[in-house]
Amino acid sequence: MTAAEAWEGITTTARVLLAVAGTVHGGSLFAFATLLLFRKRIPHVDEVGLVRVYRAWGGGLGLTLGLYWLALGLTWPGAHNPGATTLLGRFAIPMNPATDLGGVQLGLLFAYWVNYVALEIWTLEPCRLLDRDGVVTDPAAYARTARQVTTHLAVNAALFNAALVVSVL
């Protein structure tokens, strides 16, 4: 097996991983954002329970996002800079949206990542503090915080899924 054949196998596997990780991550964000947005219209849905399930799935979101970034890094050279001969050239970000939307995709993913960090640190932390040991200490404050989580999560879902759409255009 030559190095080129081995690299082709790696990039094929990475493309599959990119599709699976992107679908699971983006689908999870979309599902949780939709459930939280429409929680008042769905009978027997408790916002405390929804936020708890979202927080419990945090490890899955982190794993799929990490796998997505890894696969994106492995597939980037072939998708955006196939003729580049230097390492720096292979990972260059295309800046011409008329011919390649890779720069737009990375911009959306960067905005998503910044927003995701803000969601984890500043928006979800008050939920964690108000929900200790399965007991919500202040239901009114928790409801306000859950509304903030809903808005923030909807923005995250829109950014990540927009990056997925741009990646296939």
Q: What is the averaged pLDDT score? A: 86
Taking the sheet with the most strands, its summary is:
2 strands, antiparallel
**Share of helix among residues?**
over 70%
**SSE order:** HHHHHEEH
Structural class label? mainly alpha
- Helix count, DSSP H or I runs of 4 or more residues: 6
Number of domains: 1
Estimated radius of gyration: 19 Å
General form? elongated
Strand order of the largest sheet: 1-2
Total DSSP E strands: 2
Assembly annotation: single chain
Q: Strand percentage, roughly?
A: under 5%
How far apart the termini lie comes to: 33 Å
Low-confidence stretches: none
Report on this structure.
The chain has 169 residues and is an all-alpha fold. It has one domain (3-168). The chain is 78% helix and 2% strand. It is built from six helices and two strands. It has helices at 3-37, 47-56, 58-80, 87-90, 102-130, 139-168, and strands at residues 131-132, 135-136. A two-stranded antiparallel sheet has the order 1-2. The radius of gyration is 19 Å and the shape is elongated. The two termini are 33 Å apart. The model has no long low-confidence stretch (mean pLDDT 86).
Provide a concise account of the structure shown:
With 169 residues, this protein is mainly alpha-helical. It contains 6 helices and 2 strands; from the N terminus they run αααααββα.
Task: Give keywords.
2 strands, two-stranded antiparallel ribbon, mainly alpha
